[in-house]
């Protein structure tokens, strides 16, 4: 093993100058310098990776926005999608018209016309093609009054008369005239 270069007491010029303990030799200094260069390269790599990631995220967001724009554009140009949207809007509008017709038909017949909306199937009252079947609406209100008579407006009872409830400022505290003729005299004497 004498010929083995690793077992020789002197391996080269670096070992010739072994300094005091705590001082770095040439090879140790070179290792520290290499480590600093590695740290710099690692820092640059991390910065470059972050920049690449940010750019990739931005490209992904742009691609998603473009895809959404294209989906909206395709939906607007496809005939089937437009037809479906039109049909949906037409159905909603028809339902609103039927509800208005139902309220109008129930206005004089029920105490509260909103009861007709709550108790009747509005979708069954729409005619074919979005037309409103006025006869079906009238028949439905008639049937509701027949089935639930307590919802019907009481036509025999007069409407409540509110009269003077004594609120507000009064000019004088004079008693009311006894006859209508006295009331007229007082009105024209003033």
Name its key features.
single chain, 190 residues, mainly alpha, elongated
Quick recap of the structure?
With 190 residues, the chain is mostly helical. 60% of the residues lie in helices and 0% in strands.
* Residues in β-strands, percent: under 5%
Helix share of residues?
A: 55-70%
What does the main sheet amount to? none
Gyration radius, rounded: 48 Å
Low-confidence regions: none
SSE series: HHHHHH
Can you give the mean pLDDT? Answer: 76
Question: Structural class per helix/strand content?
Answer: mainly alpha
The N- and C-terminal alpha carbons lie at a distance of 145 Å
Give the strand tally.
0
Total count of helical runs of at least 4 residues: 6
Shape verdict: elongated
